Amino acid sequence: MASVIFFFSSFSPSHLHFPSLLPMPPPFPSFVNSEKKSFSNSLNLVDKTLIGAISGVLSFGLLLHSPSSVALDYSAVDFFSLSSHSLPSSSLSDSSASCIDEDELHEFGSSETVSSPATNEDIVREAWEIVNDSFLDSGRNRWSPEAWKQRQEDITNISIQTRSKAHNIIRRMLASLGDPYTRFLPPAEFSKMARYDMTGIGINLREVPDDNGVMKIKVLGLLLDGPAHLAGVRQGDEIVAVNGVDAGGKSAFEVSSLLQGPNETLVTVKVMHGNCGPVESIQVQRQVLARTPVFYRLEQMDATSSVGYIRLKEFNGLAKKDLVTATKRLEAMGASYFILDLRDNLGGLVQAGIEIAKLFLNEGSTVIYTVGRDPQYQKTVVADAEPLVKAPVVVLVNKRTASASEIVASSLHDNCKAVLVGERTYGKGLIQSVFELHDGSGVAVTVGKYVTPNHKDINGNGIEPDFQSFPAWSDVTERLSQCSILRQG
């Protein structure tokens, strides 16, 4: 089984007015370059364990929960896929684990995965319990624990003769919640979602602490017979380096970005097999086409100052890396101001948005808050380094600026690092997880939401810009200065 994050982006003409120094958005620049409770019944089904939660228009993290594999806990920023020999989460996260060879891992994993086939009734009750444990009402006031408990009583002790009828019952249950993002996924649709590979070589990564608390990048799961698996990468391997770049100190997201590249090109991955096995350099051929979402150019304002214009079309695995490259090049060319164009950017990988927001914030500044019924969704995300640039920033937004784009826009705005220009944003701040049911179908469930550093709920509200038309740069610097004074006071 495998899982995926979808991300879509589109581009349409802007309605903003700009001064002559910045033409209406590209003509692309001449230099273009460089995202439970366990289900208790007679079958003793495998516990449902969260492995992904992604916000965004058509953006999902998936939770795998299959009789043939043990689902492992994963961060809320990436997707996950498992081979038929899955490593129990305790084996990856226990920093005191002794060295175990691959055969022992497979034997250990297989002992955890024995399960009987699920009945139609089991599938319906399983979907009910996922909602009961994780669903967060998005504000339509149609959810209550009491009403949902009544749903359980309605489906208890009924005989469901066909799988099709079971799926229809699940559809009706989910529709009763009144949440447009919580829905049933037939097996064929779930299977299509499960094919996407963020790294391009068929592996998924996780940060795991060693005995000293130092984070290691481990292969959490891999596609059976995928490029990495065929080349010799195995479950539990530690990623030591990618193309000679040391993986030490990097996040799983950053290492995944390093692995990406054009289709059919080779990437050299240095791995340590097992907990303390041999180190091997393995060449793997990529099987996806990674495209940059970043376009940039330098606009001359006058004889002494110029503006670095960066358009970000979507948040994918290349977004942060390519935006850093573009920003550094523009700064080297003399940019004294920056424009980040997020118009018509519907989102994508939320973690890409979070990482990009961090680039502009002071260390310790709040990027975003997450809220949910489950404590694992109640988090404060903060910047962990000094900002990439300190120049004033304008973020362009419109009504199609959504999800991860809204996280970036609100984070920079609330931390007094940017002013927003354009239209009120879309207002999509919910987190969905996709849970796989035991028959290969799935349910996408709203499990949390994002709240800005100034404690404003993005979902359904959007973000109001500071200016509707492009201001003078003196107004931009004045607004940012006043914001900082108020924030400190």
Automatic annotation (TrEMBL):
Spans through the membrane: none
EC code(s) of this entry: 3.4.21.102
The keyword Hydrolase is annotated on this UniProt entry: yes
Superkingdom assignment: Eukaryota
CDD domains (alphabetical): cpPDZ_CPP-like, Peptidase_S41_CPP
Record carries keyword Nuclease: no
NCBIfam families: prc (TIGR00225)
Protein name: C-terminal processing peptidase
